[in-house]
Amino acid sequence: MQIKVGMVSLGCAKNQVDAERMLAMLRRDGFVLSPDAGVCDVVIVNTCGFIEDAKRESIENILEFAALKETGALKAVVVTGCLAERYQKEIAGELPEVDVILGIGKNSDISRAIRGALKGERTVVFGDKANLSLEGERILANAPYYAYLKVADGCGNRCSYCAIPLIRGDFRSRRMEDVVAETKELAEQGVTELNVVAQDTTRYGEDIYGELMLPRLLEELCALPGIHWVRILYCYPQRITDELLEVMARQPKIVHYMDMPVQHASGRVLAEMNRRGDAESLTSLVEKIRRKIPDIALRTTFITGFPGETEEDFEELCLFVQRNRFDRLGCFAYSQEEDTLAAGMEPQLDGETKRRRAEIVMELQMRIAEEKGEESLGRTLEVLCEGYDRERGLYFGRSYMDAPDIDTKVYFSAGYSPEPGNYLQVTITEAMDYDLIGEAQ
């Protein structure tokens, strides 16, 4: 009898890549994969454990599928990913209805553990985080024309608020030849957009080769046939080198987009976060990036309400946002994470203050986005078509300024029927909130 397995993968793109490797293992081992978790024999919840909201979403999904198991609609519930890795004993003790709990170092046990669960065995296993394989076949969990390319795992930055090193371990890069080989396979499968990711993408290769190798890797990726767009996510500000910017400016396949999480602008707060820089040095960096790549779309993220953040610190952050006018911006209220250095810092701000400050930053960004939308009127942008919105009566897709899953859309009319995955030229005629509207040429 064939066993149907479904998966819900939560959190970041890096976690999604792990999920895609597990799906390939399951298919190889004879399981039938289904996109509809509600009609499966087994459901895997590949969890996120980064901040409080993500943990809550993970628990809600686990409980939802546990309830389906109680009704007999499911035979087994499996929990993998960052929440499983971080809260091993808690999940095992407090969620007895979960049949399998795998730490990230034991993802390769997924098939064996599921077979055991179907025989009534409970599996709770954890291993060395470094045993998480960064290689192997994948089954893409998103549209077939784009993929995330994870070039490293773990992190060595040790930001005081962040639990990622506790969950994922130290930074470790993949060998360049393995990354290039995987990219060739993805291109042969029809992938045309690569989104290069790691916890700190700009650090790629330092641990293996003794130097920052992202620029050289990008050159290798751009030389491969079939790849049309290469996008870089998660760039640590102090590792954005002139060499990297020169490669981005020179290589036509590299879209002029950079995701550069800044986290704050106050030098005092950044020092407490165990990050470097201040408003002046970060502004100089932004100006240099824009000078070298004038049409670049810059995305960043900030944290409000970090322990001890004063009104003066927050005002400095707001002035920084207004001055630098980022193209894309996310802001999150600080989440007090167990076992991090910042969790023990005083004073911890109250939840209302943290949320209010995040809302103020996003209101500032909304006004900036509206202005930038107006500046886009009349521009002709290359857009990757993703589908048709029946409610709007328009096609939609993404320009070079929009990363999948996190950024905005370009809606457009067309005198023909473009297929998802097609690239086309769209002239912008209207701006609406964060989105753009145009006409295909």
Write the layout of secondary structure elements.
Elements: E1 4-9, H1 13-28, E2 32-33, E3 42-47, H2 52-71, E4 76-81, H3 82-86, H4 88-94, E5 100-102, H5 110-118, E6 123-125, E7 146-150, E8 152-153, H6 164-168, E9 172-173, H7 176-188, E10 193-197, H8 206-209, H9 214-222, E11 229-232, H10 242-250, E12 254-259, H11 267-272, H12 279-292, E13 297-304, H13 311-324, E14 328-333, H14 351-375, E15 380-389, E16 394-399, E17 410-413, E18 423-432, E19 435-440
Parallel strand pairs: 1-2, 1-3, 3-4, 4-5, 5-6, 7-10, 10-11, 11-12, 12-13, 13-14, 17-19
Antiparallel strand pairs: 8-9, 15-16, 15-18, 16-17, 18-19
Helix pairs in contact: 9-10, 12-13, 13-14
Could you characterize what this model shows?
Strand 18 (423-432) and strand 19 (435-440) form a beta hairpin. The protein is globular and about 60 Å long. The N and C termini lie far apart (52 Å). The protein has 3 domains: 4-131, Methylthiotransferase, N-terminal domain (Rossmann fold), CATH 3.40.50; 146-375, tm_1862 like domain (pyruvate-formate lyase- activating enzyme, Alpha-Beta Horseshoe); 380-440, Nucleic acid-binding proteins (OB fold (Dihydrolipoamide Acetyltransferase, E2P)). The chain has 14 helices and 19 strands. The protein has 441 residues and is α/β, with parallel strands linked by helices. The strands form 4 sheets. A 6-stranded parallel β-sheet has the order 2-1-3-4-5-6, sandwiched between helices.
